[in-house]
Write the structure tokens for this entry.
Amino acid sequence: MKEWKEKLTEEMPKVFAWFHHTIWNRVLLLARWLLFSAITGVCLGLVGTFFGKSVAYVTGLRTTYPFLLFGLPFGGLLIVWMYGWETKQERSSTNRVLDAIHAEKEIPIKTAPLIFVSTVLTHLFGGSAGREGAALQLGGSIGNFLGKCFRIDENDKRVVIMCGMSAAFSALFGTPMAAAVFPMEVVSVGIMHYAALVPCVVASYLAGAIAKAFGMEGERFVIEEIPKLTLASGGKILILGLLCAAVSILFCVVLHKTEHLFHKKLPNPFLRAFAAGCLIIALTLLLRTTDYLGSGMHIIEEAMEGNVIWAAFLLKILFTAVTLAGGFKGGEIVPTFFVGATFGCLVGKLLGISPSLAAACGMTAVFCGVTNSPISSLLIGLEMFGFEGAPYLFLSLAVSYMQSGYYGLYHSQRIVYSKVKTEFINQNTKE
């Protein structure tokens, strides 16, 4: 008994030391990140809500006053003039945010108001672009600024940048699970930056709650018919996933090649923006429809109901490529959904499977193909369409991920591990 007491007395200081250096330090670390992520979530929740409502307001104005389309070339000139303040205009994009996470570039805080105003102008005059890509840039820029304010090291600052991206994405799109995972997954294909998991989750849900409190509801769709999963229905969805991989490659190649062509033929950015605006006007007048202007969410809703023209996905690719190549600002994510939904609906009719289910699978599969982010794609699908069609969504995006190769929307995205082998390749996506 005496020996036992002596041993206990001897070991107690070691136990307390272990508790202090492990449990207590981890609790303090958790508290620290909860504070940082809460501040980031609140800031980006408010900014994201204001941004989303601004885009919705100007979209309503353009719908009410169609003649605003004729101001698109002049809106382009204004955007180029504003970005003249930024010495690296060509990198003021999601690519620059990814570069910052790779610790290769800095994101100045002035990027935030620039992308905010320029995206609103693009939507006001009818440019074909989304808003969530701009949200990632907003979140990255403000997250980088907050990281400096927190006086943390470079590694932790990269976590705050991802935290800001999650918060802004969640506030705008209303998919907090996908928003939390996407920044961790999209940076480096083949690995996940799990160090950012707690901050991204907390900031995402907090920003989403703030946006919802101000009346911003996330996008939700109903799949009208979900057949029983059989060898036949699963095989058709597999074919759809394979075709969506091809469409995702086409989308990326057209966007990048159009950008290179515009820069080569029209090296003056003012002339490039003006010409792109005029081309969008000419295409709209030629087609006699405004369906391909803005983000096109109403067309996605029609595709979910089985109503689509065969060329819709090709025309949206063209309109988006011209808009972004001309220097207009916005995101590629909602145009990707447009392309995937319309293409999926078309293929669903041809294959004899529910067009509504095929449109949902097309959306998630094309998104997965262009972003190389299968987990985020699945979560977006589950949050937007519910869990009933999960097996079909998972099958289509898995095939699309594997077959879409190493193409992607973002030049700065790094493919760390091969998609088809357990092989370290560490290369950037193809242009």
About this structure: The chain has 16 helices and three strands.
